Amino acid sequence: MPQTIDGRGPQRGFAARPASARAGLGAPAPQAGAPPRRRWLSSYRISAWVVVVYTQLVILWGAYVRAAGAGNGCGPNWPLCDGQFLPHAPKLKMFIEFFHRVSSGLDGVLILVLWAGAMWLYPRRHRVRRAATAALGFVGIEALLGAALVLFGWVGMNASPARVTADAAHLVNTMLLLAAVLLTALWASGVEHPAAGGPPKRRWLLGAGAAAILATAVCGVMVALADTLYPSTSLIAGMRLDLSHAAPMLDRLRAIHPAVAILTGLLLIWIVTEAPAQQRLHKTLGYAVFAAVLVQWTAGATDMLLLTPVAMQILHLLGADLVWMALIAYAAAELADAPAKATSGSAVVGDATA
Ligand code: HEM
Hints:
Layout: E1 3-4, H1 19-22, H2 36-67, H3 92-121, H4 127-151, H5 161-188, H6 200-229, H7 235-243, H8 249-252, H9 256-274, H10 280-305, H11 310-335, E2 348-349
Antiparallel strand pairs: 1-2
The structure holds protoporphyrin IX containing FE.
């Protein structure tokens, strides 16, 4: 029989669960006098949410590095900055790039600690361990992609197809990383593991929604790059250039992103309105997806009308990440094992299905 981390048997039945868990989220709070490991669960949960927020901030600063054309601020050196471990009196672009390296390095360390915590607190094959391991993998890939951008010179005004591909891979990886840390936090907070059964149609739809967001984001990266490399002086001049055959390929792709984004948003709205909400958390997250899409459409249109000022670019990327995280959380809540079948929302020693 699976055992909870405090050595007692699992709670059975929906009514046996605390109100927070019945809402779909929230592992039972550790009790006074509980064994040492169990007491760490609540700190782990809080730390996981802090890492989600911190990772998001690092990603936004990364977008600022691109928008400010500071990707080559440290010269063609990695991991050293301009040949130095700690640059003396750095110029603005060097500072922007150096700060990104330091903050993303710290994110790597935090994710490593999160992973070590999951290994210590949760049993083998537990969902929190799996999500934290995925996060560790994605943060490693992120560092390698960042190093490749610098060492191959895919920064600044470089407009090569290799740079476009590397930028797109970088963005997709940041979104997968966000999904992994978010799932670590959600599952550590008591959202149940995905059920084995369930209607396959909904699984396909949720997968299609996630793929559509990633495709929209990849088109968005190309627009963002086109805006950095070929800034337009006015909306009309920009549109004329986009439609002209003389314009570079990247520039001509600009019109595709809003169209793809509208279709993706409609798909997401359909996904969350099509299914009856199963519990309070699922319903709330459905509203969150809906609202995030509307806000993101508005932010995208404003971004375009204002000729993509840096602040709007950052806000628009934040909007894309919020749409993504809302869908991931919504899917996790929908696919969570039915509460009546579930054991405890917290760590379950020996729970092989977790
Ligand atoms: C579901 C909706 C949308 C998503 C997920 C999305 C996602 C993205 C992403 C990830 C980027 C790249 C950001 C970066 O690398 O810094 C981007 C750029 C851009 N998007 Fe969207 N977008 C959406 C809707 C729209 C709409 C409706 C418009 C216009 C009507 C639009 C206009 C732009 C423009 C002009 C850029 C380039 C400037 C920038 O980087 O902000 N987007 N988008």
